[in-house]
Each structure stands twice: as structure tokens, then as C-alpha cells.
Amino acid sequence: MNSDIVTRAGEVFTPALHIYHPVAIEKGDGCRVIDREGKSYLDCSAGLAVLNIGHNHPRVMSRVAEQCSRFVHTGGVYYNETTVAAAELLTTVTPTGLDMLFFSNSGAEAVEGALKLARHVTGRQGIIAFSGAFHGRTLGAVSVTSSSARYRERYHPLLPSVYHAPYPFCFRCPFGCTAVTCTLSCLNYLKVMLRHTITPKEVAAVIIEPVLGEGGYAPAPAPFLEGLRRLCDEHGILLIFDEVQSGMGRTGHWFAAQGCGVDPDIMTVAKGIASGFPLSALVSRRDIMEKWPSGAHGTTFGGNPVSCAAAIATIEAIRDEGLLPRCRKLGERALERFRLLRGEHAVIGDVRGMGLMIGVELVESDGTPATRACERLLDECLKRGLIVINCGPERNVVRFIPPLTIGDEELDEALAIFAAALGEAA
């Protein structure tokens, strides 16, 4: 029956739509999904870091059902309690000073809004982004995306006045440094850019993922982010954190910004915000947002009350169930196990991450990306009942992103399956 769904999908979906695994699920519950043939899988992809509190969390389902019984759409024509309450609750957990927001539907939409906001309030046009970044597929978002050239192929010309600097990717440092010998050459490169490529007074914003997502699951070192904050302050440049994937508890903090002690001026939030219901948020300081006049941006479906009901329940569950400290604890356990595996298998070149946002990079004997080995590993995991997905420009990084609600025994089971599959794939 799985193959039947895959075949039918091929008849109606464009090949541009990528699905990671040929599995058609019938039911999801917590950390598990069951396919149409009755096979159970541990879902350590969490719907691509969206289901941070798992499939069908009772709190979410109950609040959504209650909202659906009253009304499901307002379209910006009138106010409603649920959407306002969701905004109020979200701004209680965002980084310091980020207290006003704009709801939309997806991460890409939030990024588009962030770029527009920065340009509008500064009167400047330049945007600096980073190599390896993934910010979305819409035209503005893909203009600041460089995790893979294929995302930009045949879509030029893209948004003008966008410049890319090297991301501080310690395992594959573009300046040949290591974590021990780091000289923050990547930060110095930015300073050179501002002397030779674009003047600071022309730059509206710098946009960065504090934890690189699609580009390889690499946390930016805190000293780099601190230096970036100082550089932006010096020149009146707005600092945008894209926390679409790293936010909503994924790193063991509400947002990665809080884990590294750096507050952005603007932040994008999506994925884990509403447990699978379409919602995103562009969050900023009041003094910035109040310079964005009525009609300067808009949305029809953003802030949908059903999605906002799910967001309220999601935030309450993370808070009330103590999932942030639990995420940090489980993340440490998983990192320790993956690092032990690295000592046993030369195919693992690096293990990195924060909380339950962990990347395991596979390499060949010469250190080059082991793409085929990663593909085999994903397939072996799937056969054994574990769903994981990959990332990176060469698709050689396994991302381990289970729901924060995963049980201790489920985590041990997932890591055991991974170890057995790794032995077979390697």
C-alpha cells in the first residue's frame, strides 16, 4: 500500500516536490508513526523539526478541536482572541526586547517579511547573508540562501544587493582553522567586505542562522555571534536571526539566541511553533516594528486562529512539561553516544549540535563528504524502523531531530538502531 500511494503521488505531484522516504503514514502518535502496511517507526525527523512535542499531542488536538468548533478564519478582516493570545504568549519566551510580531504561514514568508522590514525601517538596501545558509525557496528567501546552488539554479536574476560571507563552520573552516586554532577570520572577512564590497551605511541587515540548518547542522561559535552583534551595533545594521529550525525549544532553549547570549534585532520563527499547523512569526523590537506603517506588509492566512490555538498549546506544553531542560539532558546523552560511535567508525567525521538538533557528518577516508554512505545509512535505519533525514550541500550529514517528548527507552532504541545501521552501511 505504501507503493500505491507513491505511484499515485507521482502522477499528480511535480518532480520538484522532494519526499525523503517512500513511506505513507497512516497514524502518528508521540515519537512514532505507523505506515499503511502497519509497520511502526521511531520518527527522529519530527516532520522536519516541526513536531517538537510529537505527533498528535493531546493538548494541541484538544485546543484545535475547540477552536474549530467556533470559527477557523478571520483573514485580517476582524480581530480574534486566539490570535492575540498566541502573540502575547510567544513574546513571553522570545529573546530580550523582541516584543512585537507579524504572523505569517511559513519560514520563507517570515524571512521575506524580515528582509522587507529591515529595508523599510533603515532606508538601506544591502543584505549580508552567509554561505551554506538556507532561508527558504521564495524569491527573496532563496536570494539569501546558499546551502546548495541547485536551489538558485535557473531563477536568476535574484534579489539585488545581497552579499554572502563565509559561515563559521568549524569542521570545514574556509580559512583552514580548527576550534582550537580559531582566529575568527570569518568575522574579519566581514570587516573586509564592509571596506571593499559594500559600505556599512548601505547595509540594512545581516541575516544568519545561529545554528546552520539545511547547510549542515553546525552551531555558530558564540564569540563569532558576539562579534557580529558588536559589528552591527557599530554601524547601525540590523541583526536578523533565522530561528525557523533552531527555535521553539529545539536546542534546549526557547531559541538558540538565548543559548549563546546574543539578542538579535529581528527573528524569524516557524516549524516547531504550532506542531504541524501552518504558522510562522516575524518578531522584532517595538521601536523597529512601529516604523513599519499600516499596509507596508500583509497576509490573508497568517495568524490563522486554528494554527494559533495549536501554537498556544505547543508553548504551554513545552513550558509545563519541562521540555527545555529535558531536551538539554537528552541532547547530551545522544551526543555522547554519537561521539562514542565516531571513535568506532572512521566514516563519522564530526558530531555537533545543541540540544536535540544534532548533526552527524559522514566522510570518506580522505575527509571528503561520504554522500553514498549517508544514503545507505538512511535506508538501513528505515529498514530497522528509524526515520532520520540528511542535509548539507553533499547530503552527507545525518540530522537527528526527534521530538523533545521522546522517552528515555525510545531514545535508547533509536540510538541502538542507528548504531546497527551504521555498522551495516559503513
Explain what this protein looks like in three dimensions.
- This protein is an alpha/beta fold and 426 residues long.
- The chain folds into two domains: 158 residues, Aspartate Aminotransferase, domain 1, CATH 3.90.1150; 261 residues, Type I PLP-dependent aspartate aminotransferase-like (Major domain) (Aspartate Aminotransferase, domain 2).
- Helices cover 38% and strands 18% of the residues.
- It has 14 helices and 17 strands.
- A seven-stranded mixed β-sheet has the order 4-12-11-10-7-5-6, with helices on both faces. It has a four-stranded mixed β-sheet with strand order 1-2-3-15. The chain has a four-stranded antiparallel β-sheet with strand order 13-14-17-16.
- The longest helix has 22 residues.
- The protein is globular, with a radius of gyration of 21 Å.
- The relative contact order is 0.16.
The assembly state of the depicted protein chains is single chain
Structural class: alpha/beta
Determine and state the CATH class of the largest domain. Alpha Beta
Structure summary, number of beta strands: 17
Through-space gap between termini:
31 Å
User: How would the global form be characterised?
Assistant: globular
Query: Which consecutive residue ranges, at least 5 long each, have pLDDT under 50?
Result: none
Mean pLDDT: 96
Number of domains: 2
Q: How would you sum up the major sheet? A: 7 strands, mixed
The share of residues in extended strands comes to 15-25%
| CATH overall fold name of the largest domain | Aspartate Aminotransferase, domain 2
